[in-house]
Amino acid sequence: MDKELLGIKVVRKMISLISTGVYRPERKLPAERKLCEQLGVSRGTLRQGLADLDSMGVVKIVPRSGIYIKKYSDKKLPKGILPPNFKNISLHDIVNARKIIEIPAVALACEKAGKDKIAILKNHIIKMEQSIDDLPEFLKYDMLFHQTVVSASENKVLVTAFESISEYLKYSQVYTSVHEGEEEKAMKYHKKIYAAIKNKQKKAGVKILANHLNDILESVKS
Amino acid sequence: MDKELLGIKVVRKMISLISTGVYRPERKLPAERKLCEQLGVSRGTLRQGLADLDSMGVVKIVPRSGIYIKKYSDKKLPKGILPPNFKNISLHDIVNARKIIEIPAVALACEKAGKDKIAILKNHIIKMEQSIDDLPEFLKYDMLFHQTVVSASENKVLVTAFESISEYLKYSQVYTSVHEGEEEKAMKYHKKIYAAIKNKQKKAGVKILANHLNDILESVKS
DNA sequence: GCAATCTGGTACAATTAATATACCAGAAAT
DNA sequence: ATTTCTGGTATATTAATTGTACCAGATTGC
């Protein structure tokens, strides 16, 4: 049985942080001394993981300057690889699966969401509003909002299930079907869902999300 | 970031081996010197893991006799046992996630299951009956049955989501159908689900599965 | 311009986890 | 009665991780 070296945990964590947009391509990472504090490892261990990420081409370490996330690192990440059967999947199935998972999740979220998750939800809404003229950005925070809702259910198994299909969501036409003018509508839905979770209004939250996803389902049927 | 102690991996591995029926409740485990060779760890590390399993009530260590797998009375899944990426997962969460995904899936399966999937389901039931005295085989086909049910929903996104949590199902199996004599009960339940899907009795299928998972959920609450 | 501060690169002792080895004592098999 | 099994224990060794310290180039503030 192999011992799990901390260095590879750092690699995994960093990939996760990059893929979720916490750290963004072309940008500089926090200094090593800050990073190792944030990740809760010693600097030596962090550097071990960073060296791996460097050799994988995910980051570039520049002496006396900083550590930079490479531009197209997303495509090299394991999670960035589309499932092979992607093209055989219908939008209808994607939205239906979302309904099945997200609706119970929002019900749980209304019961269990903590202040931290509520704060994150609010932040995502703010970011959505700020990037309402930048569709890729808008959709990114749309996505993060929904992931946070599932996360707020405090059921990590459900989170795992949802994460596994988030690639479908990302690359599907669902988001490109949010045409101009649809952003305002999406904003209203998200704000209502946020309010329902914050005020623990379970029935309202379920109803709003169901309507939201049904709207998407309608726009998909064509 | 917590260091992953090998002892915890031993605990996980042992639970996995018990849940897959390699080792069965009320029976004696191989001697420590054999076990640590099989698991690929030193005896000290193995004993550390076994001590945890003992304090959790999973096994009972009897000096100068052996290590015996206990029947579970404590349904709690202790922290830090499950795979490193998803810590603090409770059995409650696992069963809840199963409910959320499998119940809509069986409803869809009753609507959409084709002859091919029905044939596969029947085959899994036959294999389960044939291997009723071979627990690892039995649980294997038990698992395949559930995956086929979700697959019969004809929603590939849902299948992906379910596959991503199937690793956790075996942990829930530890506490459910692993005991001797439970196999017959599981058989009856699977046969009823199969009949409901075959005869497209949506409400019946949902009810049977919901009752079963609610039973498990109830026994878990303690 | 200069000094303080930042950056990654490096070295080394202390701590901790895991291994390998040996031996003990009771129990069971031969 | 002796060999061989069992878990319990002790210890030296190896390796991973931490913590601390310092280096040298680059940047920032005054």
Oligomerization status of the protein chains: homodimer
- Along the chain, the helix and strand elements of chain A come as HHHEEHHHHHHH
Number of strands of chain A: 2
Put simply, the count of helices of chain A is: 10
Distance linking N and C termini of chain A: 53 Å
Largest interface: A-B, 37 and 36 residues
Q: Compute the number of structural domains of chain A.
A: 2
SS class of chain A: mainly alpha
* CATH architecture level-2 label of the largest domain in chain A: Up-down Bundle
Low-confidence stretches of chain A: 73-87, 171-179
CATH superfamily of the largest domain in chain A: GntR ligand-binding domain-like
| Helix percent band of chain A | 55-70%
CATH topology of the largest domain in chain A: Four Helix Bundle (Hemerythrin (Met), subunit A)
Q: Overall 3D geometry of chain A?
A: elongated
CATH class of the largest domain in chain A: Mainly Alpha
Walkthrough of the structure:
2 copies of one chain form a homodimer. By secondary structure, chain A is mostly helical. The first copy, chain A, folds into 2 domains: 6-78, Winged helix-like DNA-binding domain superfamily/Winged helix DNA-binding domain (Arc Repressor Mutant, subunit A); 83-221, Up-down Bundle (Four Helix Bundle (Hemerythrin (Met), subunit A)), CATH 1.20.120. Chain A contains 10 helices and 2 strands. The first copy, chain A, has helices spanning 6-19, 32-39, 43-55, 73-76, 91-112, 115-130, 135-152, 156-171, 182-198, 202-221, and strands at 59-62, 66-69. In chain A, strands 1-2 form a two-stranded antiparallel sheet. In chain A, a hairpin with a 3-residue loop joins strand 1 (59-62) and strand 2. The longest helix of chain A is centred in the middle third of the chain and has 22 residues, at 91-112. The termini of chain A are far apart. The A-B interface holds A 1, 3-4, 6, 9-10, 12-13, 39-41, 83, 85, 88-89, 93-94, 96-97, 100-101, 104-105, 108, 154-165, 168 and B 1-4, 6, 9-10, 13, 39-41, 84-86, 88-89, 93-94, 96-97, 100-101, 104-105, 154-158, 160-165, 168. The structure holds a DNA duplex (30 and 30 nucleotides).
